[in-house]
């Protein structure tokens, strides 16, 4: 995806804020907006400094801070790329993939695709369907595992009305639909998640899926996704074992 850095980064030479902070803050906002995708190549410090008409040392300092905070990574030639850590998952405001959360616990992550198809929604307790003329959604269901044991059960729904190109995808994309993928094809900014987190008692159906005893408690996280115009375009429902978030909070924060 092509980025117009001169529009994205506005340098205020009259501001008391250092130039490297101005560059860093605006790049961080860009990297968190889903207008860039994982592993997308960014401009070198020298090229970006030339476009912004500032000394390269300011960009190098900004890049260094972004690298330290896992927003970007460098290859062997010190070319910056978008780091997958910058993709917003939204769970408890952590800028991290579920896989990285599992890895941080010293466990091996894996993903099992359980369902991937187009469905027609007639009712939903999460999203207002009266705002949609077309009630068809892509439904994607995945189980995230740690050391081959279930940890996170994630259902995602994306509006066909908002993303008609989803009708053209084939089975090779099953399980791979996510915010960065959609942002490649549409001028959509994933600007806001409306999130509700509840303690959940697992019934027999989910106890079997999560390989736990019926009646144990975990988390249920419901999220509705909004674009830059504050219009909903999809939602997700997640079930998680409790110790994932307890350990995750201790080790990540």
Q: Can you tell me about this structure?
A:
This is UTRA domain-containing protein. One of its GO terms (biological process) is negative regulation of DNA-templated transcription. Residues 104-246 form the UbiC transcription regulator-associated domain. GO terms for molecular function: DNA binding. The structure is a single chain. The chain has 253 residues and is of the alpha+beta class. The chain has 2 domains: 5-85, Orthogonal Bundle (Arc Repressor Mutant, subunit A); 91-252, Chorismate lyase-like (Chorismate lyase). The protein is built from 8 helices and 8 strands, in the order H-H-H-H-E-E-H-E-E-E-H-E-H-E-E-H. The protein has a 6-stranded antiparallel beta sheet. Strand 1 (72-74) and strand 2 form a beta hairpin. Helix 3 (45-52) packs across helix 4. The longest helix is centred in the N-terminal third of the chain and has 13 residues, at 19-31. Residues 85-96 and 245-253 have low confidence and may be disordered.
Throw out a few tags for this protein.
Chorismate lyase; 8 helices; Arc Repressor Mutant, subunit A; 2 domains; 253 residues; alpha+beta; disordered C terminus; two-stranded antiparallel ribbon; UTRA domain-containing protein; 6-stranded antiparallel sheet; WH-like_DNA-bd_sf; 28% helix
How much of the polypeptide forms β-strand, as a percent range? Answer: 25-35%
Measured between the Cα atoms of the first and last residue, the distance is 32 Å
From the coordinates shown, what is the CATH architecture of the largest domain?
A: 3-Layer(aba) Sandwich
- Report the C-alpha radius of gyration, rounded: 20 Å
Pfam families: UTRA (PF07702)
Protein name: UTRA domain-containing protein
Organism: Hujiaoplasma nucleasis
GO molecular function: DNA binding
């Amino acid at each position: 995806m092509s980025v117009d850095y001169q529009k994205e980064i506005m340098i205020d030479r009259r501001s008391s804020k250092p130039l490297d902070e101005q560059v860093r803050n605006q790049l961080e906002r860009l990297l968190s907006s889903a207008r860039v995708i994982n592993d997308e190549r960014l401009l070198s410090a020298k090229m970006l400094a030339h476009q912004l008409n500032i000394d390269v040392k300011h960009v190098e300092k900004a890049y260094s801070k972004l690298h330290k905070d896992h927003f970007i990574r460098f290859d062997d030639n010190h070319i910056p790329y978008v780091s997958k850590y910058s993709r917003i998952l939204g769970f408890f405001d952590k800028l991290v993939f579920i896989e990285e959360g599992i890895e941080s616990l010293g466990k091996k992550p894996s993903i099992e695709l359980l369902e991937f198809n187009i469905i027609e929604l007639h009712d939903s307790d999460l999203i207002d369907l009266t705002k949609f003329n077309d009630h068809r959604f892509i439904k994607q269901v995945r189980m995230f595992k740690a050391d081959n044991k279930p940890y996170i059960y994630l259902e995602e729904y994306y509006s066909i009305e908002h993303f008609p190109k989803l009708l053209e995808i084939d089975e090779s994309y099953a399980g791979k639909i996510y915010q960065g993928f959609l942002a490649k094809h549409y001028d959509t900014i994933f600007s806001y998640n409306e999130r509700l987190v509840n303690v959940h008692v697992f019934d027999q159906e989910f106890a079997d899926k999560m390989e736990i005893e019926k009646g144990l408690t975990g988390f249920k996280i419901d999220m509705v996704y909004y674009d830059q115009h504050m219009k909903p375009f999809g939602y997700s429902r997640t079930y998680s074992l409790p110790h994932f978030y307890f350990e995750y909070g201790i080790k990540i924060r």
